[in-house]
Amino acid sequence: MSLKSLKGQHHVSAITANAQKNYEFYTQTLGMRLVKKSVNQDDTSVYHLFYADERGNPGTDLTFFEIPNAGQTHHGTNSISTISLRVANDASLLYWKQRFDQYGVDHDDISHTTGRAVLSFRDFEGQRLSLVSDEGNTGVKGGSPWNKSPIPAEHGILGLGPVTLTVYRPELTANVLTDLLGYREVRSYPALVQGQSEIRVFETGEGGTGAEIHLEGRKDLPSERPGRGSVHHVALRVEDTDELNKWVELITQAGLPNSGFVERYYFRSLYFRDPNGILFELATDGPGFENDESFEHLGETLALPPYLENQRERIEANLKPLPTEQ
């Protein structure tokens, strides 16, 4: 069976306990655009919010499920431990450091990781994020910041950068990345904690900032107890539905627990877990977020896929209003 390479990050989905504060932080502080206000299609009682570049191009989406009673996250292994967001160059990180100081955002100093300038920070729920410089990137291109963002265009967030997985048995995840998903192991860098193994870097497709997974092995931590401020899953880009159907067959043949083909309306998906419990999604590049809203009004009203539209009245009655006119 002939398969095209995965194209890099598609989106990352995380958990928040407060949709209103989440919306304010990611649109006003970080300047991302809310391109879709919808619901979790598997639990329509909670919001699913999509932040991205100007039109939600694949590889730029950071999404959140609102779970109001979510407890505190206890960090540990078998988790998606860091999300990174791309900015144009090293100078942008200086702008962001000043902005974080101004807005009281918890952050570290600018550092360099595997040749890139990085600014690590946390949101109001402790979600672990970093801004990574795209300076010198020759791989997957970033997106285009929204022109109504409060952030100057030259410093705007361009999309998703490398995603870090922290696992107890790294070789098992490495095997899934290389033998099953077709990633290439390209380099490594020193562990963040003394006594632990090096962090390994894998890339796919065109490579570069938007197509890397960093794999951290840790023997000194328990398994993570997820809650608000944790990551639910990472989604990887598949070109189209025909390719996705091939991946369904391949993942099933490999014996990994999986969802089979899932219709999400804005894209089509396959979910599966690796032996360390990491939840991966493979998602198609299209159809995209302008199926049901115009570019000018993305994210302003509650969007429901056609197969949920007949439940709109009940769904809206169970949701706390979230004003998002932009």
Automatic annotation (TrEMBL):
- As recorded in UniProt, coiled-coil segments are none
Identify the residues that the record assigns to the VOC domain, covering every copy. Answer: 8-134, 159-285
SUPFAM superfamilies attached to this UniProt entry = Glyoxalase/Bleomycin resistance protein/Dihydroxybiphenyl dioxygenase (SSF54593)
Superkingdom to which the source organism belongs: Bacteria
Residues annotated as signal peptide = none
Task: Output this protein's name.
Answer: Glyoxalase family protein
Q: Which organism is it from?
A: Priestia iocasae
